[in-house]
Amino acid sequence: MRSVDPLRRIRLGVMAITVVMVVGTVGYVVLGFSVLDALYQTVTTVSTVGFREVEILSGAGKGFTIVLILLGVGTALYTFGVLVEGLVEGQLLELLGRRRMERRIARLSDHVVVCGYGRVGRSIADQVLSSGRDVVVVDRDPDRLAGLGVETVVGDTNDDAVLERAGIGRARVLVAALTADADNLFLTLSARLLRPDLFIVARARLEAAEEKLTRAGADRVVNPQRIGGHRMAAFVLQPHVAEFLDVVMHDGSLEFRLEEVVVAPASPLGGRSLREAHIRDRTGALILALRSPDGAFATNPAPETLIEPGHILIAVGTEGQLEALGAAAASR
Asked: Of the four listed, 36, 203, 250, 270, which is most buried by Cβ atoms within 10 Å?
């Protein structure tokens, strides 16, 4: 049986007390009391303080007072009991904290939703947070999410309402990092139906699941086991190259880092060649590759390569140089 939300029970109790107070005040006014005296008489009756009556009560007044005492005291005891229960069990504080978190999530936009907070999901969330982006973590296990310091949603990702609570309607990216391929497949389908334009990255444990996830709507499918194997092989064959890429991409100890920059439709770079744009001279950033809207890469592009709106520039440089490149690629 589903338990009633303690906060809802408290609201019901407060509403009931309010109704009793209004009915009591109106009743005493009908019996001939002034509004202030009627309110005073109602408060002292419901609170069982026991002060003398403001005015002499008739038989009807006494009967009304008896009913008011029974209703008012019962309602007050119910509300007090719910408050004590919520405080003792920690439910009230938890619910208030959850409401505050839901309000913070409602204010987010262009954030990353990470579904599944196992070892893979934890690593993803840490990396995204280190880049300064907002993250909402979704997991069905409340113990995993306790004390994370980021916005979280406890629930089953098979439920669309849970994804909506995570702000999928305003998110920039969703990461399906659940343990089972079947769960990631269902999550990908649900997310794609809710947001046809959402960028989705899905985890695959088995190679057979990769194509299915792509067909389900994942923009990128990642097999951690395969990538881990490739990375270990790179350390065997090209250890210095592998370590350099690790440091630039993940460590942050070097001044230089890699970044991708989208050329805006009205960017002054649009329609110019790399030579004419003078990107290296103007920003200091070095263009390593260029990706066209159809997904094709041009690595180590020639100076005559034409830059078009929608192209993605893969560049290396310092933070300031990459910010200058981003400003140059933006609209006028």
From this structure: 203
pLDDT digits (tens, 9 = 90+) for 278-290: 999 999 999 999 9
Which among 110, 159, 98 has a CA at the least distance from the CA of 134? 110
Q: Under DSSP, is residue 201 helix (H, G, I), strand (E, B) or coil? A: strand
Regarding the domain delimited by 6-89, which CATH topology (the fold level of the hierarchy) does it fall under? Helix Hairpins (1.10.287)
More confident call, 171 vs 148: 171
Exposure string (b/e) for 176-198, b if CB count within 10 Å is 16 or more? bbbeebebbbbbbebbbeebeeb
What pLDDT does 132 receive?
85
Q: What is the helix (H) or strand (E) element at residue 238, kind and residue range? A: none
pLDDT greater than 80 at residue 53: no
> Residues spanned by CATH 3.30.70.1450 within the chain?
255-329
The 8-class DSSP code of residue 310 comes to: T
- What are phi and psi for residue 132, nearest 5 degrees? 95, 5
* Higher-pLDDT residue of 328, 332: 328
